[in-house]
Amino acid sequence: MTTTHPSGPTAARPSDGPAVALRSLTKTFRTRAGEVTAVRGIDLTIQPGEVVAVLGPNGAGKTTTLDMLLGLTDPTSGSVEVFGLAPRRAIATARVSAVLQTGGLLHDLTVAETVRLIASTYRHPAPVDDVLARAGLTDLASRLVSKCSGGEQQRLRFALALLPEPDLLVLDEPTAGMDVTARRDFWATMHAEAARGRTVVFATHYLEEADQFADRIVVVADGLVIADGTTAEIRSRASGRTVRATLPETLSFEERHQTLVALRRHPGAASVTADDSGRVAVVATDSDAVARVLLVDVGAHDLEVVTGSLDDAFVALTSAPTSAPTDASAPQEESR
Ligand SMILES: Nc1ncnc2c1ncn2[C@@H]1O[C@H](COP(=O)(O)OP(=O)(O)OP(=O)(O)O)[C@@H](O)[C@H]1O
């Protein structure tokens, strides 16, 4: 029996292994119109304490993957383990709980009655008042569920997910339908929960959520993991870097022209632009080499190297062919 305590998740034991281990996971649905392969072979290991965003466009296979992780649907092939257990066993022992996109709430109960009712189904639930406070629901405790907004109902689902003090929280687009303020409050709460040592896995469409909240982003498209790394790695992998610098003021017009021509010929430069003030911007496939040339050979100053936006990276990654899964943390040849 798993031991729980009111203030935080069960300490992960060394023998538990990874929080999540998905191996060659596939899922094919049979429909009247034929077969739909939602997940085409996902391998993913998540260690205890990681906060991982699963990011992907509509229909990428995020929900299907999370459903298999939670034992809500069985894989067609491959395996799923949560702390070394089959998913349903992990849920039965309160190691994992979830906030799903939809989920029945009884509209005639109040918020507090709902939490109390679900708490009564656990052997060692967290205290109801504590959970209400952590989900930001104390002031709404006596409100009928039917009178709660969509965002408030989502926070109630979150409170219910906290009751077993799970080691792993799985959230499928938890802030869908919330306005900007509600979303910010929700993520502040999640930060506090992650700081308690919980492993958090969430699916999202929102790049900024993945960027701000996750330690690691797993990009899924067409049923495959197409990139996996820190947000910085995902950005640089997909969009390259831009190197900016100011050319020496002493260069003549002709020398400046020759410098730009030489930069454009450099194999590490994809494009070179310059403004009248002598500030150059080089979109680089090899930013280190370009920076060296600018500083050492050209004598430029005020050098900065910036990665592209995560939006650029996401579009570049998800519009690329998906036959070759990549690890963004591994050295890659960057494309122009
Ligand atoms: N029960 C089902 N029966 C048939 N096809 C399904 C079923 N569930 C999902 N699919 C299909 O599998 C694919 C992946 O769906 P899934 O819901 O996992 O994607 P998603 O990444 O979560 O998308 P979204 O961001 O829109 O929620 C889609 O083509 C979807 O239509």
UniProtKB/TrEMBL annotation:
Q: Does the keyword Transport apply?
A: yes
User: A single GO molecular function, which one?
Assistant: ATP hydrolysis activity
Concerning Pfam families, the annotation shows: ABC_tran
Q: Which InterPro entries match?
A: AAA+_ATPase (IPR003593), ABC_transporter-like_ATP-bd (IPR003439), ABC_transporter-like_CS (IPR017871), ABC_transporter_ATP-binding (IPR050763), P-loop_NTPase (IPR027417)
Cited CDD domains: ABC_DR_subfamily_A (cd03230)
GO CC terms? plasma membrane
Q: Which GO terms describe its biological process?
A: response to antibiotic
Identify its membrane topology class: Peripheral membrane protein
Q: Which locations, inside or outside the cell, does it occupy?
A: Cell membrane
Q: Quick one: where is this thing mainly located?
A: membrane
Q: Does the keyword Transport apply?
A: yes
For this UniProt record, give its keywords in alphabetical order, as a comma-separated list: Antibiotic resistance, ATP-binding, Nucleotide-binding, Transport
Residues covered by the ABC transporter domain: 20-247
Name it.
Answer: ABC transporter ATP-binding protein
Q: Which organism is it from?
A: Nocardioides zeae
Tell me the lineage of the source organism: Bacteria, Bacillati, Actinomycetota, Actinomycetes, Propionibacteriales
